[in-house]
Each structure stands twice: as C-alpha cells, then as structure tokens.
C-alpha cells in the first residue's frame, strides 16, 4: 500500500497539474517538483529514526504521497517543455532522454546497493536527494519562462476520441507489464535459477539496456517518418506480447525454463517497449491537434498529464494483479496472461490503424462519381 499510494498520487497529480500547467507556469512546476521530490527523498532516508508503529507507517504514506506529487509536477512539465522547445523532433528528444532513464535503471540498483552495504540505509537517500536538490538552481538558471494562454479544452474532450483511448489502453498494458516484472521477476529468478541478488540485478540490465540504446534511433525514425508511428506501436506491442508469453515460458508450450531464454526475452521486451512507448506521446499530440485542440503549452500539458496518469495507472495495476495471479497460479501463467492482455490491446490498435489507412485512401479533394460526373467533395473521418 505504501508503494501503491505513490502511483495513485502520481496519477491524480499528473491530471491536475497537466490541466493547470499554464496557470502554474511550466518552469515553476518543474523547479518546484524537483525541490519537493529532493526533500522527500532526503526525508525518506531519515525514516529509520521515526518511532515504530503507526507513526512510522503514517510518515511513510505522507512522504511517498508528497514525493509522487513532486515527481508528477517535474515529469509533466519536462515532457511539455521538451515538446514546446522541439516541436518537430518530439520523439527524438524523448528517445534521447530515455537514455538517462535506462542508465538510471541500470546503474541505480548496483550503486545504491553498494552505498547501502557500505554506509547504511540513510546515505543512498541523502545522496540522491542532494543530487536532485543541485538540479533546482541549475534549472532556474537554464530554463526560460514560457508564456501561454489557458485553454478551454479538457481531459474529457481529449479522452473522448477513440484513437486516443486505444493508444492509452496500449500504454496501460505496457506499464502494467513493467510493474508486473518489478514485483515478480526477481522472486522467480531466485527460486528457479538459484541466483543471488546481484545476478538478479544483472538480469534486469537485459531489459533496460536495449530500451535505452534503441530509444533515440526509434525516436529519430518516427520523427522523420511520422506515418510509421502507428505501425511501430503495433509491431512493438506484438513483440512485447510474444516476449511475455515466452518469458516463463507459457506452460502450454511445454518449454522448460532457461536462463538464456529469460534474458533474451527481456531484451526483446526492452527493445519492443521502445518501439511502442516512444511514438505514443507525439501520436496523441497529433491526434489532439487533428481534432481541434490549440497548438500551445496548454495542450502539451494535458497530453503530458494524460501520458503520466495512464502510465501510473498501469504501474499500480501491474504489481497488484501480477502478484495475485503469481500467488494463485505461478509466474509462467501470470506472464502469459500479461502477454494475452497485450495481444488484445495490439489487436484493437491494429484494427484502428487499418481503418485509418482505409480512410486516408477515401479522403480526396474531388472524387469522380459514376453517375454525377466531376462531383461533390467527400470526406471521411473515422477516428
């Protein structure tokens, strides 16, 4: 529950802050989010000094919840600012930023573990909090002020379009899959292959490394050829679903669990995650503009907030449902079910892509009608 409240508060914070990013100010939101998150990280490192019992639990909930709001503010603003500064290279910029996300996932556990073993519980949190705090004056100095007018558009209008809903469902399945792996993979690897904690951390590199290496290239391709975004999401979703089905592997396949197969499938999932996740933000933004949303910081904030909220929803759902299924069945079946949900999401998304491609063929300025000669302009708008 302590870790679950983080995802819930992140979800709520992303929606609220994304809606009011213009009124709050993008620069102030980013800087204040970093400041709040750094303070909460330092305070979390001091929780071992709190009295045991209800006081300790209450402080954990409060600090994690406030930290989630700070994280939501920083991430929502950073996505919106990146898209504002680089409007023609959004996927490339986000893909480049994901290099550092991957590096954090790769280097965080071993470095944090070394500090924990060498200096105790407090030092890793204090050090990380201080690093975040140093980013506050740096961003105050570097970032410009972004002036914009508030928009009358809302999340309800944004979420009322079918294609955006389908993309969000696909993104929800991606984040749920990652949350599922966070909660269950280490236990499965230790029990099945008798690995130590250090080797389990190395296995997770198989997921993070392909993602951080492929993201910039995938972002560049989807910016250069925008028509590939939908197909990248579909193909990436298919590969992710197959990766989860073979991760265990799926019991009905009667394939014994092998360490090399587990690592290889994690690599497939990591690469396909980049294929699917990187085009999502610019694709939602394009859909919003196509449906009449104003081009500006207000729309960027709403899209950023929606992205963060859906991702947090999946990160909340994945560990809970994955843990329950693993507890009542086993990891192999839980991973297969996660892959099956991915197949459902991809099938629906693929259907929408086919419809859109068909509609693009039908949309013509002037169509020759067999009975009316050079005729009426006909336009079809399916999604």
TrEMBL record:
It is found in: Membrane. Keywords: Membrane, Transmembrane, Transmembrane helix, Transport. GO terms for cellular component: membrane. The keyword Transmembrane helix applies. It is a multi-pass membrane protein. SUPFAM superfamilies: MFS general substrate transporter. One of its GO terms (molecular function) is transmembrane transporter activity. Residues 1-364 form the Major facilitator superfamily (MFS) profile domain. The chain crosses the membrane at residues 28-47, 53-74, 86-111, 123-143, 164-190, 196-219, 231-253, 259-285, 297-317, 337-358. PANTHER family: GH10249P, MFS-TYPE TRANSPORTER SLC18B1. This is Solute carrier family 18 member B1. The lineage of its organism: Eukaryota, Metazoa, Chordata, Craniata, Vertebrata. The gene is SLC18B1.
């Amino acid at each position: 529950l302590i870790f679950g409240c983080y995802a819930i508060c992140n979800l709520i914070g992303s929606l609220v802050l994304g809606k009011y990013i213009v009124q709050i100010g993008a620069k102030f939101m980013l800087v204040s989010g970093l400041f709040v998150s750094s303070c909460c990280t330092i305070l979390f490192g001091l929780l071992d000094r709190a009295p045991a019992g209800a006081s300790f639990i209450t402080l954990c909930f409060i600090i994690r919840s406030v930290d989630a709001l700070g994280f939501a503010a920083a991430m929502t603003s950073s996505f919106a600012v990146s898209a504002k500064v680089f409007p023609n290279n959004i996927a490339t910029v986000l893909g480049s930023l994901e290099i550092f996300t991957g590096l954090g996932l790769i280097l965080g556990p071993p470095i944090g573990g070394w500090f924990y073993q060498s200096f105790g519980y407090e030092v890793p949190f204090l050090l990380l909090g201080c690093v975040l705090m140093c980013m506050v004056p740096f961003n105050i100095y570097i970032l410009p002020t972004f002036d914009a007018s508030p928009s009358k558009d809302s999340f309800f209008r944004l979420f009322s379009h079918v294609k955006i809903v389908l993309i969000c469902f696909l993104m929800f399945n991606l984040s749920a899959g990652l949350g599922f792996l966070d909660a269950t993979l280490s236990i499965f690897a230790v029990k099945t292959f008798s690995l130590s904690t250090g080797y389990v951390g190395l296995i997770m590199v198989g997921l993070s490394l392909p993602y951080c290496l492929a993201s910039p290239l995938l972002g560049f391709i989807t910016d250069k050829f925008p028509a590939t975004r939908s197909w990248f999401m579909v193909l990436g979703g298919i590969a992710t679903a197959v990766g989860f089905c073979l991760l265990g592997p799926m019991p009905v396949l009667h394939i014994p669990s092998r360490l090399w197969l587990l690592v290889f499938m994690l690599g497939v999932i990591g690469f396909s995650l980049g294929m699917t996740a990187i085009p999502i933000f610019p694709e939602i933004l394009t859909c919003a503009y196509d449906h009449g949303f104003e081009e500006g910081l207000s729309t960027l904030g709403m899209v950023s907030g929606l992205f963060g909220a859906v991702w947090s929803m999946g990160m909340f759902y994945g560990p809970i449902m994955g843990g329950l299924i693993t507890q009542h069945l086993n990891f192999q079946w839980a991973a297969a079910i996660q892959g099956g949900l991915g197949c459902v999401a991809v099938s629906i998304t693929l259907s929408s892509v086919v419809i859109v491609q068909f509609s693009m063929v039908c949309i013509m300025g002037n169509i020759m009608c067999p009975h009316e000669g050079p005729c009426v302009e006909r336009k079809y708008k399916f999604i």
